[in-house]
Amino acid sequence: MSGVEVKVEGLSKSFGRANIWSDVSLTLPPGEVSVLLGPSGTGKSVFLKSLIGLLKPEKGSIVIHDTDLVRCNENRLYELRKLFGVLFQDGALFGSMNLFDNIAFPLREHTKKSEAQIKDIVMEKMDMVGLKGDESKLPGEISGGMRKRAGLARALVLDPEIILFDEPDSGLDPVRTAYLNQLIIDLNAQTDSTFLIVTHDINTAQTVPDNIGMLYRKHLAMFGPRELLLTSDDPVVSQFLNGRREGPIGMSEEKDSAQAEREMAEAGELDGLPPIKPQLEVSAGVPERKAVARRQQRVRDMMHTLSPAAQAAIRASHIAQPQAGVADPGAPTEQLPRAGHGGYGEPRHRLR
Q1: Rounded to whole angstroms, how far apart are CA atoms 240 and 38?
Q2: Residue 58 belongs to domain spanning
Q3: pLDDT tens across 156-203, in order?
């Protein structure tokens, strides 16, 4: 299994008269880990459901393997869905089935493999997520963290090229979240699949992804290398990453601008962004992530499109260190191609 590029262009989704988001454009680089942030109610889960074809957007395209999922016929959409694995918020396990049968379910439904083959695959995936020996347990007999890992094993059984994580850390304590984050990095190294994670957890956003996007005010406000958002001076980003009450984000997404200005004035000088934490590396004994080398070259090629703060953060990391025969990212880059509209690095919208 290996990752595939997912190109989203001009996507818009509404429920009746309620617009969820409009003109969302981004490209998920093949085999890399991306995170989608945003205040509650901004449609992050709706975006995941649109990617997999469970919801149909009114406008835009989602292109995978040269096929637009928004416009293809039902038979082709059914085949393309097999490229996806999904970890739902609560694991979405069948309560009456043991873990083995839960994880085997997609293989029995979508393949003609023998029970012996299914057993080999299920046991391999359970071992990957640390559940070997628990195959006879029911979902009600295990912890929330184990249910998440069982759901993740089920997402892996069809060897998907794209894996979607809908708030994998919800309901988990910080220690279990840290273990799950490390598992995600290790699985990415083993599968080289394209990962997209929806999360509210700031530590996850700071340490796991190669790329970060943020939904706000019904638009994808920003998407690109993790350093782009983690060094942004926008007040929305600062408020979100610091978890503060003061700022543009309110209980119902955004505040009245006058109220936000009043709160900021009352609060006085606020701290800026938290320090950038190093990205998680694979565990001992796990092969290196193939995505690292690809990202390294890709980020060099787009350096001139990023903010000075993001460039400085990239240069300070090992990812941007020049290799033999590769240009220094600080060198003139007129010969390098500019990141395209809605691509890997250029912000699609500015926060406001």
Answers
A1: 8
A2: 6-83+160-230
A3: 999 999 999 999 988 888 898 999 999 999 999 999 999 999 998 888
pLDDT digits (tens, 9 = 90+) for 309-334: 999 999 988 554 444 344 444 443 33
Comparing CA positions, the residue from 320, 334, 2 lying closest to residue 162 is 2
pLDDT in tens, 87-130: 987 778 998 999 999 999 999 998 999 999 999 999 999 999 99
DSSP H or E run through 35: strand 33-37
Let me know if 90 is exposed, middle or buried by CB neighbors in 10 A (0-12, 13-18, 19+).
Answer: middle
Helices (H), the chain: 44-51, 74-81, 99-110, 115-128, 144-156, 174-191, 202-207, 226-230, 235-242, 257-267, 290-302, 308-316
Q: Output the domain CATH number for residue 46.
A: 3.40.50.300
What does each C-alpha distance from 258 to 100, 244, 245, 248 come to in angstroms?
Answer: 55, 17, 15, 10
Identify residue 10 by its one-letter amino acid code. G
For residues 218 and 21, the answer to whether their CB atoms sit within 8 Å is yes
- The neighbour count for residue 229, using CB atoms within 10 Å, is 28
The reply to whether 176 and 214 lie within a common domain is yes
pTM listed for this prediction: 0.84
Would you call 96 helix, strand, or coil by DSSP?
A: coil
The CA distance from 165 to 177, in Å, is: 13
- Domain annotation covers residue 302: no
User: 79 and 164 share a domain?
Assistant: yes
How far apart (Å, rounded) are the C-alpha atoms in residues 119 and 100? 8
145 three-class SS: helix
Tokens of 224: 């690109």
* 3-state helix/strand/coil string of 170-218: CCCCHHHHHHHHHHHHHHHHHHCCEEEEECCCHHHHHHCCCEEEEEECC
